[in-house]
Design brief:
The complex is a heterotrimer of chains A (about 270), B (about 375) and C (about 260). By secondary structure, chain A is an all-alpha fold. Chain A contains 14 helices and no strands. The relative contact order of chain A is 0.14. The two termini of chain C are about 35 Å apart. The relative contact order of chain C is 0.13. The chains are: A mainly alpha (about 270), B alpha+beta (about 375), C mainly alpha (about 260). Chains A and C meet through helix 1, helix 2, helix 4, helix 5 and helix 6 of A and helix 1, helix 3, helix 4, helix 5 and helix 6 of C.
């Protein structure tokens, strides 16, 4: 095409935007993270992760994020299977059901769980009404995991649903035709074919869980610090941008690892949430 | 012929308010190549899916080898399917695809390896075992889909428009391939297609379907030469289907002109459809001053040999390679004619038809009647 | 039996996702200011809500930022996606990689990186800095939503339009845009939603005195939430719900007609 050059020229605004607001800010994080207050090069901000308090916050964040991710997969997979099996479905409606809660403020939603989970909260009132043992999970890591699952479950459901609903029904029929029962077909056909969705869902749940500071602040009391809380406090309370940036670099290492894993398994971009 | 392997008894199936199959009865013999032929939406694929176990009929029974399998899950049936879009497992190699059914049945490794080798050889793709389906062409994928099905030694192979996605040349090659496979395997093939040529080429028996009813069952020759109703005649190749009157046995009046024919027992002065294949219409050149306006030659007169029984004018001419296709306007009907000789547009011609080539069919009494189920 | 199990399971997940909505809606009618006890039914919070200038300003900020950022992101993102489609593999995958960064990176890192940028260049924190940040992550959602549409577009359509005498601009508006419109629209909705629901990035890029609903709620966490916030989010939730039901029932009837 003759006007190819012109068409490519159209990308200029975005390229400039991406450089100014994606690339340069990231370089800023590296700049601040690798210098001290006087602008001198140092590794001390990054190495600050070895501080026991920081190390512990990273460790807890990793464990809780891992647990939430696994539970999200276990909860979302059957649901995605069910949604994909609905005939005459209105796809938009299914997607909207899971996006709709986002229109109610994220903080308020999490706060509502506080109301539900509190020691004299709604759930415990219902439980004690039926003389059942009550839950004491508010301000514990379990409550944080609960909040993570609640907030990020839709990001696991949507990519899984997308991938599973695109599997050709005849491929599953073929497996049944060749003698596989329902569970064999699920294990040998559906599961391997939905790997891109699983991987995409994992990154979409794991990264925000690992890096959250709001969920832990609201449901974990102020006792449990995640790496996200540490970084947030360095920026907003201690105004130690260098240390905050240094710890962010460490955090990004984990994010990059999960991005690399994603790109290996999800070359086609099949598992995107939208 | 041999025994019935599959019996479909009184099968009805609807999707929502849409009746797809209506009280269908059909049997399939052992070692038969049976083709379900019809336009899309005629119920042929649904029939196949009911045999395969992917749909359950609303009423009726599926009997397989004397056993009622109507409610049996697909994985427990002794038949295998070759799907329309191949339905290969893209995350497995070709060999793993072929081994799938055998692994489920827990066959030994050496048995499976032998079978893979045998199946790949059978479909002429010996060196492809370690490849993935995405690297194959459409025709190759189809062969693998067949190989994957036949290693399970099914008694019946169901094929759902297996050649639909291939181009013409490849389709013709695959037709011969399928006939060869059928002979080598000695099993029953149930084949679904909307392509009449494919059906005529490969089948032992053709079942013509329309709107959920079987229109006609017969050998390819029977279906082509003696269509039982206007739908079959129209669907199988081009035809002149002309509303006519059966005067008495062996005499039919077509477009006001009496033609001798060979059909009997339709009664007297009965409205019928006359079906005449375009290649069976014989044309005779007439002089330019011949009056064709009040066309028709008396039955008693011998002049039909020179002037034809009906006279008309050639209105269209197309060269088709092996023959010329012409349209002749005679007595208000546009006759479709195939002939190896050329008759230019405007040429006045006489039309003759050998009595054997006039196929008389009962007129459908109503729209519904047209689709009446016909037993073999 | 199996079907009942399916319905039960879906219902449980649904309850899990929507239980907080119910709690918030109930709280919006609670006379008591405390979340813990029920003080009787009242409409007061709804009445007072519209008189509260601070909350109204936060709502206006939130909606303006969501709308403008989604709109700008749609324009820049759609144009960029069209251009990227014509690029070589390397340039395209690099661009897509960069586009993925705001989506895959942690919100907290995106937030602080932009905060550092604004600090470094002494850019004034306020409405505009939030807007710039939101446009940035919204472009990614738009590109990701438009890209598949562009890939499936028949390039001959555009060429045919030019062949028939259309100018490139005319062809863009009459041929390309209608073709990719569903992608642009869902990109816009996605971007609008993401912007509306964002707290973390806003938290780091907002200046003193400018608040969105999210940051307002966050500020109230320690001293207790103003129940007018429950009323506000209930109103937003209900209006979106009604809108969605309308969107999903109206064109469904139209679509069926088209299919036949």
């Amino acid at each position: 095409m003759k006007n190819n050059k012109f068409v490519k020229f159209l990308s200029v605004p975005y390229v400039l935007w991406a450089i100014a607001f994606i690339i340069i800010p990231l370089l800023m994080v590296f700049y601040y993270g690798l210098t001290d207050i006087n602008g001198k090069f140092t590794f001390s901000n990054v190495m600050a992760i070895t501080d026991p308090v920081h190390l512990k916050s990273l460790y807890i964040a990793l464990i809780l994020a891992l647990i939430s991710t696994v539970i999200c997969i276990l909860l979302a997979y059957p649901l995605a299977l069910i949604l994909a099996s609905i005939k005459n479905k209105n796809e938009h409606l299914i997607v909207f059901i899971f996006i709709l809660p986002m229109w109610m403020n994220f903080l308020l939603r999490t706060l509502a769980w506080q109301t539900l989970l509190e020691n004299d909260g709604i759930i415990n009132n219902v439980l004690s009404f039926f003389h059942l043992p009550t839950l004491h999970i508010i301000n514990t890591p379990a409550a944080i995991v609960f909040g993570m699952i609640y907030n990020f479950l839709p990001f696991m459901i949507l990519p899984l649903y997308n991938v599973i609903s695109k599997i050709d029904q005849n491929v599953l029929n073929a497996a049944r035709d060749l003698g596989a029962n329902y569970f064999q077909a699920l294990l040998k056909i559906t599961l391997p074919l939905s790997v891109p969705g699983i991987i995409s869902g994992i990154t979409m749940v794991f990264v925000p869980s690992l890096t959250t500071f709001v969920v832990s602040e609201m449901l974990g009391g102020s006792k449990i610090l995640l790496i996200g809380n540490v970084i947030e406090q360095e920026f907003t309370q201690n105004s130690n941008w260098n240390l905050g940036s240094g710890l962010s670099i460490v955090l990004m290492v984990f994010i990059v690892i999960s991005m690399v894993i994603t790109s290996i398994f999800d070359k086609e971009g099949e598992g995107n949430a939208i | 012929m041999s025994k019935h392997l599959i019996d479909l008894q009184n099968i009805s199936k609807s999707f929502g308010s849409n009746l797809v199959l209506d009280e269908m009865n059909l049997y399939i013999r052992e070692n038969e190549f049976l083709t379900l032929l019809g336009p899309s939406g005629c119920g042929k694929t649904t029939t196949l899916r009911i045999i395969g176990g992917f749909e359950t009929p609303d009423i009726g029974k599926v009997i397989f080898d004397g056993e009622d399998i109507t409610k049996l899950a697909p994985n427990k049936r002794q038949l295998n399917t070759v799907f329309q879009q191949y339905a290969l497992f893209t995350h497995m190699t070709i060999a793993e695809n072929i081994a799938f059914g055998l692994k489920i049945k827990k066959k030994s490794k050496s048995y499976i390896d032998d079978k893979i080798k045998y199946a790949l050889k059978l479909v002429n793709l010996e060196d492809y075992g370690s490849r993935y389906p995405d690297s194959l062409s459409g025709g190759q994928k189809q062969r693998i889909a067949i190989a994957r099905a036949i290693v399970n030694e099914p008694k019946v192979l169901l094929l759902d428009e297996p050649l639909g996605a291939l181009d013409l040349k490849l389709r013709q090659d695959m037709q011969y391939e399928l006939i060869r496979l059928k002979k080598e395997l000695g099993i029953t093939f149930v084949y679904v297609t909307h392509d009449q040529e494919e059906a005529l080429t490969m089948s032992d028996t053709i079942v013509v379907m329309n709107q959920g009813y079987i229109q006609q069952i017969g050998t390819p020759e029977m279906i082509y030469n003696e269509p039982e109703n206007a739908f079959v005649a129209d669907f199988i190749g081009d035809s002149n289907i002309i509303s006519s009157t059966m005067i008495r046995d062996e005499l039919v009046e077509i477009l006001g002109v009496k033609f001798p024919c060979v059909d009997k027992d339709f009664g007297e002065n009965k409205p019928v459809d006359a079906v005449i294949r375009p290649e069976d219409v014989e044309l005779i050149t007439l002089p330019d001053d011949f009056d064709v306006t009040s066309s028709g030659t008396s039955l008693d007169s011998d002049s039909w040999k020179e002037t034809g029984r009906i006279q008309g004018v050639v209105t269209h001419l197309i060269f088709k390679g092996v023959h010329y296709e012409m349209e002749v306007m005679a007595n208000g009907y546009e006759w479709l004619v195939h002939s190896t000789s050329l008759f230019p547009v405007g040429q006045k011609v006489g039309i003759n038809i050998d009595p054997f080539n006039i196929q008389i069919m009962n007129k459908p009494e109503s729209e519904d009647e047209e689709a009446a189920p016909i037993e073999e | 039996m199996k079907k009942a199990l399916k319905i039960l399971y879906s219902a449980l997940i649904f309850v899990f996702l929507y239980a907080p909505m119910v709690v918030l809606i109930v709280l919006s009618f609670n006379k008591s200011k405390s979340r813990a006890k029920w003080g009787g039914f009242t409409f007061d919070w709804y009445v007072k809500l519209f008189g509260d200038h601070i909350i109204m300003q936060a709502l206006i900020n939130t909606l303006l930022i969501a709308f403008i950022s989604a709109l700008v992101a749609c324009i820049i993102g759609t144009i960029a996606a069209l251009a990227m489609n014509k690029m070589g593999t390397l340039a395209k995958s690099t661009m897509l990689g960069v586009t993925n960064i705001p989506m895959l990176n942690a919100d907290i890192v995106t937030g602080i990186s932009l905060m550092l940028l604004f600090i470094f260049f002494r850019f004034k924190f306020g409405f505009v800095s939030i807007l710039l940040a939101h446009i940035t992550f919204n472009i990614s959602y738009v590109i990701l939503s438009v890209m598949p549409r562009i890939k499936n577009m028949n390039p001959s359509n555009y060429e045919a339009a030019l062949d028939l005498g259309a100018t490139p601009v005319y062809a863009f508006f009459k041929v390309i845009l209608p073709d990719i419109w569903p992608g642009v629209l869902s990109g816009f909705l996605m971007a609008f939603t993401m912007s509306l629901d964002d707290f973390i990035i806003t938290h780091f890029t907002k200046g003193a005195g400018v608040d969105t609903i999210s940051t307002k709620v966050y500020a109230q966490l320690k001293k207790g939430i103003d129940p007018k916030m429950y009323a506000l989010s209930t109103l937003i939730f209900i209006s979106v719900l009604v809108l969605l039901i309308l969107i999903n029932t109206l064109p469904a009837a139209g679509k069926k007609k088209k299919a036949k």
